[in-house]
Amino acid sequence: MEVGEINPWFFQVEPFEGESISHFLGRFRRANELTPTGLGKAVGIAGAITRWEKFRFNPPPSRQQLEALAKVAGIDADRLEQMLPPAGVGMKMEPIRLCAACYVESPCHKIEWQFKVTQGCQYHHLSLLSECPNCGARFKVPALWVDGWCQRCFLSFGEMLKWQKPS
């Protein structure tokens, strides 16, 4: 009996509206028990996953790379492209920023929070947080957000809302 090529299968993860590629990649990797390197090898773009999770888009993802990732992730390449900054929009790689009010409504990191031009949340008219208001810990890259709370003191992102100031 001859065994044909075995194609791997992956658990699908539905993207949130406005979700950053970093957050989506972290959720997809955890659902499939993959490291950034493991996902990069599965997609055929070793190294790129780690860069994208840290908002490093130089060089920007190519259409071919997005299509390869889309095939593995089971979503459309155009949907992945929406998780990236628009052409010409600069990214703020550090600090990672958060609107607690948005997170309560949709538990994900929004790509727009990391745009250099973003000063505050345009929906809630609140300043963005860049560290835990309780203990001062800087937020980790969104790919590492698992439970929606500070990695040091475990204050939930939703509870941080009371510390956000009007922008």
Question: What fraction strand?
Answer: under 5%
Alpha-beta classification: mainly alpha
Query: Roughly how much helix do the residues carry, as a percent range?
Result: 25-40%
Q: Name the strands of the widest sheet in spatial order.
A: 1-2
Q: In total, how many beta strands?
A: 2
Q: What is the number of domains? A: 2
Average of the residue pLDDT scores: 94
**Radius of gyration from CA coordinates:** 17 Å
Q: What is the helix tally? A: 6
The SSE string, one letter per element, is: HHHHHHEE
What's the end-to-end separation, in Å? 68 Å
- Largest sheet entry: 2 strands, antiparallel
Net shape:
globular
**Low-confidence regions:** none
Protein name: TniQ domain-containing protein
InterPro entries: Lambda_DNA-bd_dom_sf, TniQ
GO molecular function: DNA binding
Domain TniQ: 11-128
